[in-house]
């Protein structure tokens, strides 16, 4: 092992990136750092910590120069005005406002397709949409499985300036109808049915239930011409809205605009995956979530990347399916979620090792913290100890990667998302909103905007400010807890609000609670997340029944079914804990801290229960824990 090399840390905002140079790169328990191979580093887009620091420093000190150089590589019908970025990021100074490349006229679909390929894939569907009267600014809901038609429809909307809102096809008809009511789309695009593993799911029936109206389907498309003129848009015109969970029951319509999102997703994709034109890229995310927007559709296609799209389940017909696909299509960049890594890890190495996987060169992880043991298995077994892992931390709200390794640039640490992307200034604050320096832990915030930032919540700018900018004035608050180590590496520790992350899917506890209490026999419900070996977290619900109703297995099933129906199967509670009462403060607030401890059976860590209105409730809950 060579000696530690301390790199210049520059201005306060530049992370301390102390590179420890190790002789080998096998990720073992003892090795804190995992180095990219020399072969990898020498061909990488960013090859050293020094090169990263130089670029990062410029992105912070001269964001306008940094981002306008990158934006100039895209096609703009008209260049943006004098100001690259115009922002108010501080609620104390007025309304939050973020604008990038304002006045610039472009089209993201044009940049994805026309700029990169001769024949536009999005053209066919776009003409159909225009014919039925969809115009610039109209909302279009897309409720489709991961068929080729899904990204094509997104691009078609973008081409004509319609605002797409993809609803994950695992959502129930009731969730879909809630979103239809909120964004009032001109059309809902779906398909008849999809196979998931061996099961057939009839999507069109779900849509019919949601809108109670069966009209056109895809059969009409072939009669349309194969070209469609582009609708030119301002950089700040909306591109899409995507609903995500928050700490109240009502989903939030996160709004992303055109220009900044385009520049940001393309750039993050290029650097975080060390993208080269020869790469074959496969991301296992569904377009119903942000990952499928930014890193199945826009980011890769803007780079002209070859993308593998897979509509099936990753473990069907067997646990080796992913590697079968990797070998068949020579996938070189594979981007997935820790939950899949953990479940494949449980299925055994033999499903992996019987495939070659030699085309792989970069791996990626997203959606939740990846625990070091899953990281090592991903690295050593899937990647044969040769492929760097980009553990990308970001959110629906951020549009693109915020904290991520640049493979090839610096050593990695299993379980850490490493350092900020260009232009991103993460800060850790304490509960009073005071920024903490150096090695510390606290709440993860971001200082000043980045091009891919969301601009508002659809129809509710006030909620946007209250949720994200008021908790710690002067910063964007992510909702995540985080620590920073002595080398300046960031370690995400999970949500600090009432949001649970199940298999990388964001679910608000309040959404599940309101589904449960809609059952006529349920009086009250409190939902918490508990650690789960494969899913990261699972949903654990404490349920109080209406007076006189007895507990029964049948009722338990019925409650779970209610949640499946109202939200979707992915939000079904794993455990219903019968509760004669819930622990509340004297002012009536449910003490979730105590419920979390009971749910995870950490009974010696219940803490102070003396402030409870009825301290005895806790003992009753413990007695009923395994009934
Ligand atoms: C979590 C998904 C740790 C985090 C892109 C965040 C992560 C939430 C990571 C956003 C990661 C996402 N390490 N935690 N690499 N990536 N998260 O909006 O809690 O579906 O706040 O976006 O997922 O989930 P969302």
TrEMBL record:
Matching entries from NCBIfam families are given as: PRK00174.1 (NF001208)
Provide the Acetyl-coenzyme A synthetase N-terminal domain boundaries: 52-112
Q: Which terms are listed as keywords in the entry? A: ATP-binding, Ligase, Nucleotide-binding
Annotated Gene Ontology MF terms?
A: acetate-CoA ligase activity; ATP binding
Which superkingdom is the protein from? Eukaryota
Q: Indicate the enzyme's highest-level EC class.
A: ligase
Q: Which residues form the AMP-dependent synthetase/ligase domain?
A: 123-449
Domain AMP-binding enzyme C-terminal: from-to ranges: 511-589
Biological process GO terms, please?
Answer: acetyl-CoA biosynthetic process
Quote the EC number.
Answer: 6.2.1.1
Give the record's family classification: Belongs to the ATP-dependent AMP-binding enzyme family.
Record protein name field: acetate--CoA ligase
């Amino acid at each position: 092992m060579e000696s530690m090399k301390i790199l210049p840390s520059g201005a306060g905002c530049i992370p301390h990136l102390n590179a420890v140079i190790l002789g080998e790169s096998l990720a073992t328990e003892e090795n804190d750092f995992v180095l990219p191979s020399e072969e990898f580093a020498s061909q990488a887009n960013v090859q050293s910590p020094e090169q990263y620091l130089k670029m990062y420093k410029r992105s912070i000190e001269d964001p306008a120069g940094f981002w306008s150089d990158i934006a100039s590589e895209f096609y703009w019908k008209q260049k943006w005005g004098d100001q690259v970025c115009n922002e108010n990021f501080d609620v104390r100074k007025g309304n939050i406002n973020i604008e990038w490349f304002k006045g610039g006229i472009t089209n993201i679909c044009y940049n994805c397709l026309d700029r990169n390929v001769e024949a536009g894939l999005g053209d066919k569907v776009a003409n159909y949409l225009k014919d039925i009267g969809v115009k610039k600014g109209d909302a279009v809901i897309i409720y489709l499985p991961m068929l080729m038609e899904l990204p094509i429809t997104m691009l078609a909307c973008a081409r004509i300036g319609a605002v797409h809102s993809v609803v994950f096809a695992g959502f129930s008809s009731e969730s879909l109808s809630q979103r239809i009511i909120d964004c009032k789309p001109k059309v809902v695009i779906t398909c008849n049915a999809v196979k998931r593993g061996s099961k057939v799911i009839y999507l069109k029936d779900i849509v019919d239930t949601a809108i109670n109206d069966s009209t056109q389907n895809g059969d009409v498309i072939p009669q349309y011409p194969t070209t469609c003129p582009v609708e030119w848009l301002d950089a700040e015109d909306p591109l899409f809205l995507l609903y995500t969970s928050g700490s109240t029951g009502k989903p939030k319509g996160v709004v992303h605009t055109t220009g900044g999102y385009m520049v940001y997703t393309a750039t993050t994709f290029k650097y975080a995956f060390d993208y080269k034109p020869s790469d074959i890229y496969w991301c296992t995310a569904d377009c119903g979530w942000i990952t499928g927007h930014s890193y199945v559709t826009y980011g890769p296609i803007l780079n002209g990347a070859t993308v593998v799209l897979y509509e099936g389940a990753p473990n069907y017909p067997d646990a080796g399916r992913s590697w079968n696909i990797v070998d068949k299509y020579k996938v070189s960049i594979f981007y997935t979620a820790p939950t899949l890594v953990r479940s494949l890890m449980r299925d055994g190495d033999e499903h992996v090792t019987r495939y070659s996987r030699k085309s792989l060169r970069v791996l990626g992880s997203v959606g939740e913290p990846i625990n070091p043991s899953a990281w090592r298995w991903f690295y050593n077994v899937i990647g044969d100890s040769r492929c760097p892992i980009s553990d990308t931390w970001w959110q629906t709200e951020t549009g693109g990667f915020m904290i991520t390794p640049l493979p090839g640039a610096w050593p990695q640490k299993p379980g850490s998302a490493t350092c900020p992307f260009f232009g991103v200034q993460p800060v850790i604050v304490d509960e009073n909103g005071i920024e903490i320096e150096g090695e510390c832990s606290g709440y993860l915030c971001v200082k000043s905007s980045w091009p891919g930032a969301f601009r508002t919540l659809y129809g509710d700018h006030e909620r946007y400010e209250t949720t994200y900018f008021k908790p710690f004035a002067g910063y964007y608050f992510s909702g995540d807890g985080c620590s920073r180590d002595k080398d300046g590496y960031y370690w995400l520790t999970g949500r600090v609000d009432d949001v649970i992350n199940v298999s990388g899917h964001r679910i608000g506890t309040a959404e599940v609670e309101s589904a449960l209490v809609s059952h006529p026999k349920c009086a009250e419900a409190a939902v918490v997340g508990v650690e789960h070996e494969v899913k990261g977290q699972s949903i654990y619900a404490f349920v109080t029944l209406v007076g006189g109703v007895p507990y029964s297995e049948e009722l338990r099933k019925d409650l779970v079914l209610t949640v499946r129906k109202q939200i979707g199967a992915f939000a079904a509670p794993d455990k219903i804990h019968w509760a004669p009462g819930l622990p509340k403060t004297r002012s009536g607030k449910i003490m979730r801290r105590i419920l979390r401890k009971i749910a995870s059976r950490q009974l010696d860590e219940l803490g102070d229960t003396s402030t409870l209105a009825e301290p005895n409730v806790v003992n009753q809950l413990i007695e009923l824990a395994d009934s």
